[in-house]
Design a protein that fits this description.
The chain has 353 residues and is of the alpha/beta class. The protein has one domain: TIM Barrel. 46% of the residues lie in helices and 13% in strands. It has an eight-stranded parallel beta sheet. α13 links the parallel β9 and β10. The longest helix has 25 residues. The radius of gyration is 19 Å and the shape is globular. It starts with a helix and ends in a 15-residue tail after the last helix.
Length: 353
């Protein structure tokens, strides 16, 4: 199988030849290519070249293209700071008052910086790699996370608790869904094979707020992606156990989870319904650990999540720039060593022909 075929087989609920691999490595890729982050993350050409450098080194099945968590917020008018040691962040949220929701601009992905640069990176990668590799063009933030970025997270959390008219929050989230959907469809047009959005998890908002505000707007987004025939993933950090059923109900083709969520709980909730991407710790294992520890944790994830299909092995969140290359290589090699399938969906023992 090609890498694209391998990932699509998982998404479609079938059994591939082996478990595919993903690297959430846009920061690490820039470092590997010797590029300053502040320049790389604002240039489509540099973003594409950095991902090619990393892909030629590791040969992972999915390339996840993004420039951080502030792209749409910046395109909507928020002030962003770019540095050379971390991902960009919001320093001046655009929405100063909830009274101004109707004045918010829905960005044009082909005109409003930095979205055109990410589209350019996706287009270059698709021209270079064709249908060999699954190119995931991340559509940035899910509705509540985007609302936090354009309102200011502290202020948005205050709004959630203090606003007597919940329809005001719904109206803000409607704008965010529209902005994210438009960007996702532009990424599809640019050549991406799939997309992804990142939402607040239940470590950040209560499960009841997740059900009230996040879920219906996530369902609108993923419904639009299904209508467009565009596979889409939902990323959430932290322990998602309290909202795993809602994440499945969102309609996402993939749930991107980190190791704070119990492996067995994730498998039980998603079995036969959707797939999981993760769940190797990007900080304590891939960044600070050893190749032996990476192999151990990758094998543990494979043994729980891979049987019966529905699993893509990778870090649970973004890799920091300084992640050791030998640790990433150990993850890739673990999939090849421990992640091969028999036709019935069970894993072959290491070394079996």
């Amino acid at each position: 199988m090609t890498s694209l075929e391998r990932v699509m087989t998982v998404i479609e609920g079938r059994i591939p030849d082996r478990v595919p691999t993903d690297l959430h490595n846009f920061l690490m890729a820039a470092r590997m290519a010797g590029m300053p982050l502040s320049q790389c993350l604002q240039s489509g050409e540099l973003m594409a070249e950095s991902h090619l450098v990393a892909w030629r080194r590791f040969g992972h099945d999915m390339i996840l293209v993004e420039n951080g968590t502030t792209a749409v917020a910046q395109a909507m008018g928020s002030g962003i700071i770019y540095t050379d040691d971390q991902a960009p962040r919001v320093i001046d949220p655009v929405l100063k008052s909830l009274d101004d929701i109707d004045k918010l601009k829905i960005p044009d992905p082909e005109r409003d910086h930095p979205l055109p640069e990410v589209l350019k990176a996706v287009s270059i990668l698709r021209k270079e790699l064709g249908d060999k590799v699954f190119i995931m063009g991340r559509a940035d933030q899910a509705p509540m996370a985007l609302a936090g970025a354009i309102r200011g997270h502290g202020q948005f959390f205050f709004d959630l608790g203090a606003c007597e008219d919940s329809k005001v929050i719904d109206r803000l989230l409607d704008v965010c869904v529209e902005a994210t959907t438009r960007y996702a469809l532009a990424l599809q047009k640019a050549g991406a094979h799939g997309t992804s959005i990142g939402e607040f998890g239940s470590d950040t908002i209560s499960p009841s707020m997740y059900r009230r505000y996040a879920l219906p707007h996530l369902q609108r987004f993923f419904s639009a992606m299904k209508k467009a025939g565009f596979p889409a993933s939902l990323h959430q950090c932290g322990d998602t156990a309290a909202v795993l059923p809602e994440m499945v109900a969102s309609g996402a083709d993939i749930l991107e989870l980190d190791p704070h969520t119990d492996l067995r709980a994730a498998k039980e909730a998603t079995r036969g319904k959707t797939s999981v991407l993760g769940m190797v710790d990007p900080a304590n294992v891939l960044h600070r650990g050893t190749p032996a520890l990476v192999e151990q944790k990758s094998r543990e994830a494979l043994e729980v999540l891979a049987p019966g299909g529905g699993f893509i092995l990778g870090p649970g969140c973004a890799l920091v720039p300084e992640t050791p290359e030998e640790n990433v290589q150990a993850l890739i090699e673990s999939a090849a060593k421990y992640g091969n399938y028999r036709p019935d969906g069970t894993l072959s023992p290491p070394g079996a022909s």
